[in-house]
């Protein structure tokens, strides 16, 4: 069972545009110690790992419900991490920087390549409302982004299986069942992680999902379910205790990383909001909002009619003030983010 804390209230200053005064996310030391890595599962009991994963997801839930202004940048940064893991699992050579370039340095509608499509799939998870993630239309688009050519009948069957799974009881069964369903359809484990993250967000009532299992390179040993039907698939995978333990540990590690990243981005966002009044560019407020809501911005992007030169000067000023980082390391086609 996952215990969800009551939603914390955002300080009125955040709504007025000032840095948030809400406390940064913290994870108790005992909980950090209880989260095992992929190599230290021996001797761990499923019940203990379930408690650890539930407590960590509960702490993450508190961060999500604060609905901070920088949450968009947070979700998209996590999507980039998940895309990098997915690319490595698929044997691709592109790292996170290359994946980001593939999407940001192409015009809307242009071909971003197979690696860029992986990033678009994970960005879709965090950008679309959680309630829309498992619709037939959205699943068809996700399958194409993961490199599959789905047919209407297959997408309909997958949608029905996921709907049945989402209506079942037990967070552990939903998580393991989503990955088992993906495997039964012949999809990569990363797609199963995408589906599990989507169902978790719906189960917790989040407005947007977070890539959790998608950011984990190790998701337990492979399962080979043979029976058909969503509930029977979930049952077959749950009977493999090592697989269940691996998934619970992976979910706990991923939730902890997401919490730590939220604290890091909160500090950076507070710095950006603190220096924002010093900015004199006409569209500076819009640029600040974009930085808080996106993983990164290309210096040549058109924002409120600003010229390339004006936007570059603004970014240079923000870097000088320590409020923004240049992420590409290049002299040209530079990319900025908090």
Number of strands: 3
Helical stretch count?
A: 14
What fraction strand?
A: under 5%
How does the overall form come out from the CA principal axes?
globular
Question: Which spans of ≥5 residues are poorly predicted at pLDDT below 50?
Answer: 1-17, 221-237
- How would you spell out the order of helices and strands? HHHHHHHHHHHHHEHEE
Helix content: 55-70%
Mean pLDDT: 87
Enumerate the strands of the largest sheet in spatial order, edge to edge or round the barrel. Answer: 1-3-2
Structural features:
single chain, mainly alpha, Arc Repressor Mutant, subunit A, 2 domains, 14 helices, DUF1403 family protein, DUF1403
Question: Layout of SSEs?
Answer:
Blueprint: H1 12-15, H2 29-34, H3 46-65, H4 71-89, H5 96-104, H6 113-127, H7 136-145, H8 152-166, H9 171-184, H10 189-204, H11 230-238, H12 241-275, H13 284-293, E1 297-298, H14 308-320, E2 325-326, E3 335-337
Antiparallel strand pairs: 1-3, 2-3
Give an overview in words.
- The chain is an all-alpha fold and 338 residues long.
- The chain folds into 2 domains: 45-267; 279-337, Orthogonal Bundle (Arc Repressor Mutant, subunit A), CATH 1.10.10.
- It has 14 helices and 3 strands.
- It has helices at 12-15, 29-34, 46-65, 71-89, 96-104, 113-127, 136-145, 152-166, 171-184, 189-204, 230-238, 241-275, 284-293, 308-320; strands at residues 297-298, 325-326, 335-337.
- A 3-stranded antiparallel sheet has the order 1-3-2.
- A hairpin with an 8-residue loop joins β2 (325-326) and β3 (335-337).
- α8 runs antiparallel to α9 (171-184).
- 42% of the residues are buried.
- Residues 1-21 are annotated as: Disordered.
């Amino acid at each position: 069972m996952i215990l969800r804390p009551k939603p914390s209230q955002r300080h009125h200053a955040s709504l007025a545009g000032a840095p948030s005064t809400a406390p940064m996310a913290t994870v108790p030391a005992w909980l950090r110690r209880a989260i095992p890595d992929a190599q230290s599962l021996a001797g761990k009991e499923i019940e203990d790992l379930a408690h650890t994963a539930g407590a960590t997801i509960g702490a993450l839930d508190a961060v999500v419900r604060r609905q901070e202004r920088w949450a968009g940048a947070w979700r998209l940064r996590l999507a980039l991490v998940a895309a990098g893991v997915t690319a490595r699992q698929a044997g691709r050579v592109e790292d996170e920087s290359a994946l980001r370039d593939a999407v940001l340095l192409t015009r809307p509608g242009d071909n971003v390549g197979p690696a860029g499509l992986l990033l678009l799939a994970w960005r879709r998870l965090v950008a679309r409302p959680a309630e829309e993630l498992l619709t037939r239309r959205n699943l068809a688009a996700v399958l194409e982004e993961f490199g599959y050519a789905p047919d209407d009948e297959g997408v309909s069957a997958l949608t029905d299986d996921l709907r049945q799974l989402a209506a079942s009881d037990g967070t552990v069964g939903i998580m393991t069942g989503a990955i088992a369903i993906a495997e039964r359809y012949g999809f990569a484990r990363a797609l199963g992680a995408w589906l599990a993250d989507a169902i978790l967000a719906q189960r917790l009532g989040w407005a947007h999902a977070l890539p959790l299992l998608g950011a984990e390179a190790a998701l337990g040993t492979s399962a080979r379910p043979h029976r058909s039907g969503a509930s029977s698939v979930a049952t077959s995978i749950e009977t493999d205790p090592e697989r269940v333990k691996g998934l619970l540990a992976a979910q706990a590690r991923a939730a902890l990383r997401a919490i730590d990243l939220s604290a890091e981005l909160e500090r950076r966002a507070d710095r950006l909001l603190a220096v924002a009044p010093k900015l004199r560019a006409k569209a500076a407020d819009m640029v600040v909002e974009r930085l808080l809501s996106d993983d990164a911005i290309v210096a040549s992007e058109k924002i409120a009619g600003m010229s390339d030169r004006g936007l570059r000067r603004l970014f240079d000023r923000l870097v000088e003030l320590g409020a923004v980082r240049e992420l590409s390391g290049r002299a040209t086609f530079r990319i900025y983010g908090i």
